[in-house]
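Changelog-adjacent note: as of this version, every example in the card shows the full chain rather than a window. The one below runs 280 residues end to end.
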Amino acid sequence: MTYSKISPGPSAAAAFVLALAGCTGANGESAKSPEESSGASAPGIEIEYIAHASFLMRAEDGTELLIDPYASRVWLGYDWPDGIAPNAILITHPHYDHDAGRYREMPFPWSDEVPIVDAPGETAFGAFTVTGVRGKHADPYGMEFGQLNTLMIVEAHGLRIAHLGDNGPLTAEMIQGLGRVDVLMMPGDAVDHIISPETTEAILTELDPSVVIPMHYRLPDLEVSEDSPSDLGDIEPWLEGRARVRRLSNNSTKLSISALPAEREYLVFAHAPYVVGPTG
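Full-length structure tokens:
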């Protein structure tokens, strides 16, 4: 099934699409992007990191999918940006930092015309195929909604991206449902708010992604104080000891199946420049 654009004008996110001019390796030196390393411009998925666990993904046909938008200033100290107009929205679970406050019946930034995927099943949007796999929210959170969590596989142009939401340890059934994972978006922070180091390593072994994109960590320049949000740590301690860490100088890059690294890489995005803190 194909959906047309909800808004004919470019979104605020699209206005900030930047080519990956450079990124920084773990040793602080400039590192090449996957596209630069391959020397080719192959069809792929453009990924824009907004903030927290939210990403905008764009296929070659222009179709845009938004995953896990957060509610403004609920636990997190910053606002959701205006002007993002995706073709569809994917929601892994009904926590305010993943569903824009929809479960709490807060004002939702999009109209009812925008399709929402928030349950297991398969749906097509333009060049994208989205497959939801039944998961389980990490303990002890999410009891108020039965610990629902839908693992999302987003596929286009041969590339498969998995977004885990706030899932806990993966079962054999979940692993089978996810299938091949080329790019993994997973929570990681200094205080292991969602999953433990042992679970993190188990997931990496079980799914064996070529690229790991950490998410769901504290963004210090957007927060009001050093202890906010509560129980959420920075990303740097989580990255310590990991080989092939690439820190992007902006919030956008394009990944393709033909240019995946031979050895696993960790891509750390800058948050979107149009997301600002309380004093911004």
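Structural remarks: The chain has six helices and 16 strands.
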